[in-house]
Task: structure prediction
Amino acid sequence: MAETKFKPFVAPEVKMKELTLKSILLGCIAGVIFGAATVYLALKAGLTVSASIPIAVIAITLGRKFFKTTILENNIIQTTGSAGESIAAGVVFTLPGFLFLSAGSGGDSYFDYITILILAIFGGILGTLMMIPLRRSLIVKEHDTLPYPEGTACGSVLKAGEKGGEFAKTAFLGLGFALVYAMLQKVLHIIAEVPTFMTKQANKIFPSAKISGEITPEYLGVGYIIGPKIAGVLVAGGVLAWLCLIPLLASLIPGEIIAAQLVKLGLLANLDTAGGSGSWDPATRTFSDYSAAIYQAYVKQIGAGAVAAGGFITLLKTIPTIISSFRDSLGSLKEKGEEGQVPRTERDISFKFVIIGSVALILLMALLPQLPGDSIWNKLLIGLLVVVFGAFFVTVSSRIVGLIGSSNNPISGMTIATIMGTCLIFIAVGWTGKVFEPMALVVGGMICIAAANAGATSQDLKSGYIVGATPRNQQIALFIGAIVSSLVIGWTVHILDTPTAEMAAQGIKHAIGTEKYAAPQATLMATLVKGILSFNLDWQFVLVGVFIAITLELCGVKSLSFAVGAYLPLSTTLPIFIGGLIRGIVEWKQKRSGVKLTAEEEELGKGNLFATGLVAGGAVAGVIVAILSVNESVSSGLAKVNAEAGLAEALGHGGYQVLGVLFFAVMGYTLYRIGRQKQTSIDKL
Result:
């Protein structure tokens, strides 16, 4: 393929400050913040939002104003920071699955800080490592055919330079708004967290139907960013689960049978013990919340089957792209470099480093005692599978995000395929049973992290190519960002997993897996591993979900978003839908006014930047409150400023919830007004 005639913003012969201490430090700080926020959001909703554009905006504003950074230093800040968000997504999508493996598998013993840290670092390094030989083929040679939308948008922001303050102002406004809102909601409890309306089980027409919404800034922001179409499909899955399946099952299944199913799943000790999902009462043989009990007993497994099928179907659709991508990438590795001096903008880390790093990764996985495996030989097989699957899916991930962007990268599908392939290999060599479940999850987890990081790395390298960065410096920054971000990601997961005093009183040992932090993707991965290796799966419910996904595909609807909505509580998807609805109204108004925006201008629109600030502010506030709540003295202090009881007494419980909805409406209207404001084009900056 002929190489493009593209000219970078900074000429190859120009020497400019780039990989400096201040650029690395600022990038690491950004990576830590957005990494922690992504952990929070992914644990709660199984969703992530690309942070590359806000990091670029922050880099321009803070870097130029306070540290006099160059455009190439700003690019390093953005590159280093983006590693935190991508690695956090890969970690949360898989590694909490250790908690949900079969009893006796020893999976929960691997859910500790050190193991998560090691796997996060290894997965992040693998994703960057495998992208080194692919950069010239995918980023340079196919510059005109692979747009890498987020990377191109970031390059445009970076070129806008020190005049990018208008963009940053809007993003910081959203951040500040979210922090104030979160303070009123999560600390003072003036705003209700989850307003809920539910029909009674005794209702013969529509029993145990529940409508609820976790009215937080981050969910509203996520909905606006993903837009009305995806948000609508997402909430449609929730409507099917909570307003169709649950009322139907509540009409047909007696409470004792539901309770027995919860006992089978380990969510209730026995029929004579109170508690569990839905609060079982052994004296009356009833639940106080039938919808929660039915969701955990049946609907969650139906949703898991739908998500697995949706992810796998998404992967199947990309097979032509996968084959051509892998073939072209292998062909590029056979090309010899040109003789003579290599321009600065074409200097990569040596391919020898990739080979040595891959071998070192396999050996470290075989030798480290923190990783599952009872002998060096089965650990060597795990390491080999990780590198082989990694080389393949990193290539796939990079090309896919080049075409459709990081937000649409089918990472779940790749991870599902990896886990299924790994489990089948295990079965072929006679490794069946509970003890091998953690080993299979390790392979899937590292590939998920590597594929997610490879997608983000590709966007970063595209930005660097546009502005004229040195690839080797970017690759070094990515390695540093992966390691530093992993230090905080593991700690954040550990903190959020710590049960509150109320949870501990109920005998709950892990907050992850509860309604507070559902960790839907990780639960799914664990379900697949158990089902294949231990033959311990309620296939009748899973297959219902599979055929729901197939039905949607036959109707021309992308099933994965719908399936995720069916798996999640409606309280999560409903506020996301409202954010998407606001975006739809804004776009409708713009269309009626004759306003036409390019893809870059939409990404950098004021509504999008304000929404990104809402996501970052709300998620960071959630992490901070969770950290503070771990300390008993701080937690008791927070309880003293809790206004919920007083407001509920003054307004009534319903009135208190209506007050929360009004606050949420004000936030939504603010987002709408900012989204309608006239935007300054990048070209005018």
